[in-house]
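Sample 1 of the test manifest.
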Amino acid sequence: MRSRRDVILDRWVDLVVAGVRGRITESELRAELSELYGLIERSTGGEREAAGELRAALTEISRTRARQGFSPSETAVSVFALKQAVLEQVGAIGDVAAYAEFVAFSSGVDDLGLLTFETYAAAREQVIADQTEQLLELSTPVVKLWEGILGVPLVGTLDSARTQVVMETLLERLVETGSQFAVIDITGVPAVDTEVAQHLLKTVMAARLMGTDCVISGIRPQIAQTIVALGIEFGDIPTKASLADALEWAMERSGTRLVGGAGA
Amino acid sequence: MERVPILKIGQVLLVSIQVDLQDQTVLALQEDLADRIVRTGARGVIIDITAVDIVDSFIGRMFATIASMSRLMDAETVVVGMRPAVAITLVELGLSLGGVRTALDLEKGMRLLGAPLPAIGPGAVDSP
């Protein structure tokens, strides 16, 4: 195997290049694989450190592949292809001892392939978790409606995780902007149950503790009916039918007077 | 034992909490404060907790106690500068501090109590 290093490496690169279909350049791939090859040589030679390094290098490669959107088998094949490259050379020698050696080598490569598979799966899960978090942040914007008035348009179902993010972002922004009023708009919330109401109340209470008045807007007819049917009490929290009403309320309270306009 | 200083600005007493509050400190503060309200005839108390990172239910109750105590002596209490994390903790603890007024910062708290603010520069004339 050592004597035919270049031949095997060339063949390995060829096999893998066919699999990745131009998403990595050949020179990059060659650099990656020859590093791996060197490490494999050293670890089959019995070096302890090299085995560790090999695992680390493989982990890194499969992690990058997972981010780049390669499929798991494409990633694993880049390792398994080595077997074929070696086997062809063993066949060329046609020696029984070489075949026996190849069997041991092959099972070693299998282990490495499985390792890439595992790392690949872990990396993909990480990517999904990251995206979920980003989505959570994207779906909970806090916007400035007017000087001293923040708006929180909520869209979609409110669960504990989302409410926590909403609450934290709202409170942070209150401190940053020094806003006296916040309008929580639930026009985009499909259903209000006791849990959602509880979450809303907590958010309003926390804002009130910091010295900000909140108004809940966007109570649609069906939602009003559900709230009454469920017996949910919003206490002394002001609620409005539309965002416009809530904004008007907040502006009036903050001492801003609207002049003119069709509805005024 | 550490004592929290109580400052007087016009008709308002200002308590700015800069240390980690021990139960003993809090009790001493309540005593001192009650004493000062009577002696100075203050109309308002501002508790500034901008520097407070951690609260427990005892501290939470302290605000309520101080508020009802000073109301008996005709002084209104405003808690100012509460951090988001502190607010979340208090809500999770189920303390809503009913009867205590709150403001985002000291300036807004002063305005809430109707205390005259010193006019500094051209930007300071926007008070109602």
